[in-house]
Amino acid sequence: MTHRQIMEALSGLLLGMFVAILSSTIVSTALPKIISDLNGSQSSYTWVVTASLLAMTATTPLWGKLADLASKKLLVQIALVVFVLASAGAGLSQNPGMLISFRVAQGIGMGGLSALAQIIMAAMISPRERGRYSGYLGATFAIATVGGPLLGGVITDTSWLGWRWCFYVGVPFAVIALIVLQKTLHLPVVKRPGVKVDWAGAFFIAAAACTLLLWVTFAGDKYDWVSWQTYTMVGGAVVLGLIFVLVESKAKEPIIPLRLFRNGTITLASVASLFVGIAMFGATVFLSQYFQLARGKSPTMAGVMTIPMIAGLFVSTTVSGQIITRTGKWKKFLIAGGVLMAAGMGLLGTLRYDTEYWHMSIFMALLGLGVGMMMQNLVLATQNQVAANDLGAASSTVNFFRSLGGAVGVSALGAVLSNRITHYMEDGFTKLGIKPGGSATGGGGSSLPDLDKLPAPVRTVVESAYGHGIGDIYLYAAPVALLALVCVLFIREVPLRTTAANQASEAAATGGATAKAAATGSAPATEALSAAEAPMPGASSTGGDTQQLREDAAMATAQSPAPTPTSGHGVYGTVRNADGIGVARAAVTLISLSGRQLGRSVAHADGSYTLDAPGPGSYVLIAAADGHQPQASTVVVGEEPLSHDLLLSGTSGLAGQVRGMADGAPVHGAMVVVTDVRGEVVATGITGEAGEYRFDELVTGSFTLAVNANGYRPTAVPVEVQGQGTTRLDVDLAAGARVTGTVRAGGHGRPLPDARVTLVDAAGNVIATSTTGEDGAYAFTDLDAGDYSVIASGYPPQANALQVTGSGVDAYDIELHHPDE
Which residue among 266, 531, 675, 727 is least crowded, i.e. fewest CB within 10 A of its CB? Predict the structure, then answer.
């Protein structure tokens, strides 16, 4: 897609995100007034924020999985409608409970919008280019975050409007967003008939998250942190989490595929997102309360005074996105973001009610810069690691952990804040000789005070308590931000791909058209297919494809491609491996959408290539090289040469050790066979002295590993070969039982040779038969433990007709034998 097409498609999506973020942040400056009018407490203040975060956290994985199974456009429209209706309902609230209920519905819609925005961008835009457009998303986030508190403050301070219009104001924008989405967002609908949503997994992960968040919210307020309620709720959350893992391991289409966490980048990004969520949501929620209750500012001014943090967020997301698009490098921004976020949180921990504002501005800007660099790029790093069919689940997983961190952070920090405010108020009132808890003291921290109605000395105590208490929670959150930095330090940087998810789907469809053209005798299509197909590892019959690739590369070498296209419609770029190193002598083929070969080249030593195209239009670019999985992508060539890099992931490997189950000793000489889902053998091998085996150049997918060795029972186990690196699978073989004995006859017990011995299991099935030797011995090996019957028999009777003449001696020999001899 061209930049113009992408921006047209993103316009409605960004407008929808703007509405969601605006409707969420517009409430932040109005919350003290809202809670006061509805006669709520500090606990209600926290719950209004936590309720939406809880619902968003619980439903984000479900939205992500639905995006893999249904129309993304329809889902984002549904999420927007749910969010807007819930916002309108929240404006009608008459008490804190009603408001919290509608905030739950808002969270459901917000979960869909936050997850689907990232997923839709990934479907349209390659990871390399996505940094640029993620900056636009970050800018939208920053503008809405700045505009929300400002607009909320103005509405709250305007007597003829009131705080309820904070919820109503987003409705017109939402209607416009729905219309624009309908007209501009066009995505292919991937139909997967027969696939069912994993509702059980969705239920258990939501239940586990809700139980955990309820515990964090009530602990320290309704009951002690160490109490039977804590043990019950934490234990319940753990049990529900374990049930979720069990359900996901058996589900055909899990909400969160557990195999994703075999990838270190996804695991570390998820954990880091958890910590980023604590920092991001904690900062935005409690800063507004600080400015209004610790510094006595109006809601409008409270919004204005948070601009340094939002400006930092705006600058970092936009600038880092542009640089990532140009360089393809993203890890340095994660590290820098982690350092700045930890520093900002630590410095905000020094807050007091009389802290100089210019000091605060620097602290907030540092925090905004850090969060902006980490928030979008953690999602980008994750999306760069997964296939198109896992894009929704992977994106929503990272968003889930970020939302979970936000919900846990707001709940836990809110509980700590309530405790610290009460403590500091009691100390201050004691020094004034006032008994805490009276109406003149503002409620002792149990309810939000009206500063204008408090006497000057009492007001100073209340402002000091809120300033010191909010400073404390930032200090407590600083180590969490430091943990996020530690996580990103261990993330391995993989160069960003230059193909989008929907381009991969289009290339697959084009591959089908190419195959059809090949079947009808199109020679160019046949050549293109030979460059695109990967050889089947382990089977000798697949050498032809590899040989064809070598011939293609040799032919292309003779063409000596120029460093730039000779026509204005060319394609040029670099073929790189997963480590970002150029792949020399990679065969690059350009074909039309109908499957006709239009050009072929070979990459130079640094991986660079050039190809001429007949003219502007859409084409399919195919790259292949020995030891790598082929890559196909759709390119749109215009009037100017197009730069397009290709990423070839190395073929996967499978390795492990075969051991005896009883003693753990390595099994030497075991036969190891790998078969695909169709039952065809793709690789075979014999274990070495240490029982080790190894297969290189396997494609990603599901396989069956079968192992057989003398003296052991054969076994077969399923294995999922990952897309990067070597998958390890150790196999334990159970030793086969052995039965031996001797068949004897007569009173003297002499050994009976040539006797037939049959072994029958408990079900009456014949397991094996044996014939005794001269010593009467027999043996059965490789048996499972269980009950058997041993049946021994001699030769069956032999009856023959015989006529005797009556004189002399008649000779007549009799031959005995077993029936099958």
Answer: 675
CA dist., res. 607 & res. 644, Å (int): 12
At the fourth CATH level, the homologous superfamily of domain 652-733 is Immunoglobulins (2.60.40.10)
CA–CA separation, 778 vs 793, rounded Å?
Answer: 13
Does residue 522 surpass a pLDDT of 60?
no
Residue with more model confidence, 807 or 514: 807
Residues 376 and 321: beta-carbon distance below 8 Å: yes
Confidence check: pLDDT of 504 > 50: no
By the 8 A CB rule, do 31 and 121 touch? no
Q: Taking all residues of the chain, what is their mean pLDDT, rounded to a whole number?
A: 77
CATH code given to domain 3-198+252-489: 1.20.1250.20
Give the span between the Cα atoms of 257 and 243, in whole angstroms.
14
pLDDT at 366: 92
The secondary structure of 386-432 as a DSSP string is S-GGGHHHHHHHHHHHHHHHHHHHHHHHHHHHHHHHHHHHHHHHHHH
% of the chain with per-residue pLDDT over 70? 80
- pLDDT tier at 188, thresholds 50, 70, 90: low
pLDDT (0 to 100) of residue 534: 37
pLDDT band at residue 674, thresholds of 50, 70 and 90?
A: very high
Same topology between domain 3-198+252-489 and domain 737-821: no
- 140-165 pLDDT, tens digit per residue, is 776 776 677 778 778 877 777 888 88
Could you give the CA distance from residue 616 to residue 639 in angstroms, rounded to a whole number?
Answer: 6
- Domain borders along the chain are 3-198+252-489, 199-251, 501-647, 652-733, 737-821
Query: What is the homologous superfamily of the domain 737-821 according to CATH?
Result: Immunoglobulins (2.60.40.10)
* pLDDT average, residue stretch 588-600: 83
H helices of 456-533, in order, are 456-489, 501-519, 523-532
**Over 90: is that where the pLDDT of 203 sits?**
no
The token pair at 310 is: 């939002």
Q: Considering only the top CATH level, what class is 501-647?
A: mainly beta
HEC secondary structure over 216-285: HHHECCCECCCCHHHHHHHHHHHHHHHHHHHHHHHCCCCCCCHHHHHCHHHHHHHHHHHHHHHHHHHHHH
Kindly tell me the number of DSSP H helices and DSSP E strands found in the chain: 20, 23
Phi-psi region of 162 (alpha: psi -120 to 50; beta: other; left: phi over 0): left
Please say whether the beta carbons of 37 and 450 come within 8 A.
no
